[in-house]
Amino acid sequence: MRSFPATRAIAALMIREVATSFGRTPGGYLWAIAEPLAAVALLAGLFSLAFEVPPLGQGFALFYASGYLPFALFSDLAQKIGVALRFSRPLMAYPAVSWLDALLARFALNLLTHTVVVTLVLATMLAWAGLRPADPLMVLTALALAASLGLGIGTLNAYLFERWPLWERAWSILNRPAFLVSGVLFLPDAIPPPYRDWLWMNPLTHVITTMRVALYDGYRPEGWMPLYPLAIALVPLVLGLMLLRRDGRDLIWRG
């Protein structure tokens, strides 16, 4: 049985990443909380100057947090899992550490980090405004959908980044417009057809909508399908795992 050695390897990789990612900068883990807070505050401040009320609810900060936080979870997982082989390559010289351990360690640590950040940020904003989420369990659903999509895309990226290094730069460029077309700054149901139908083809739109359904009572837009992102995530996840199983070791040693 490899389960116990694999668990130890994943835990060791997670501890190493905590030390390397957060232990070398002043404040450490506090930056993981400060960064999304600053992004949400900037968005809320800018749009409050142009509009009297947000597209949903009364607070700009909560509205943009409901879009930015799940998007950041997806984006961070897709990128960090994508470079997991490169990050953990020195340790994969040991037989007990596999490419799958590297992917799972990055997924687990970053999912845990973002879950803590989302919980703290949303709890603080809701308490400050004297509000309660419409469906607390749906908040977890939104995070699970964002994490599933990030894991699927990240697993495929882990193969593509190593096989074709140019794809890493292309992915960075292609991922930037996703922030604008995923409903972070607006409600997709407020967009006129046929553009609205195009937006609903984006799984991130459904992820962000799930978070807003969880936070805002009575919000159930037509076209929202919460299981759609999960179905989409399975495709790159299965493809990425198959390709890494076939070529994972070769990619590691080639690098």
Short description:
The protein has 255 residues and is mainly α. The protein contains ten helices and no strands.
How is this structure best described in words?
The structure is a single chain. The radius of gyration is 19 Å and the shape is globular. It contains ten helices and no strands. The mean pLDDT is 85. The chain has one domain. With 255 residues, the protein is mainly α. The longest helix is centred in the middle third of the chain and has 31 residues, at 99-129. The protein has helices at 3-21, 30-50, 60-82, 84-87, 99-129, 136-163, 166-175, 195-200, 203-215, 228-254.
Overall geometric form: globular
What is the average of the pLDDT values? 85
Total tally of structural domains: 1
Low-confidence parts, pLDDT < 50 over ≥5 residues?
Answer: none
Q: What is the radius of gyration computed over CA atoms, rounded to a whole number of angstroms?
A: 19 Å
- Proportion of residues in extended strands: under 5%
What is the helix fraction of residues, given as a range?
A: over 70%
Number of strands: 0
Largest sheet: number of strands, sense, barrel closure: none
Q: Count of helices?
A: 10
Calculate the terminal CA-CA distance, rounded to whole Å: 29 Å
Structural class: mainly alpha
**Pattern of helices and strands:** HHHHHHHHHH
Topology:
Layout: H1 3-21, H2 30-50, H3 60-82, H4 84-87, H5 99-129, H6 136-163, H7 166-175, H8 195-200, H9 203-215, H10 228-254
Helix pairs in contact: 1-5, 2-3, 2-5, 3-5, 3-6, 3-9, 5-6, 6-9, 6-10, 9-10
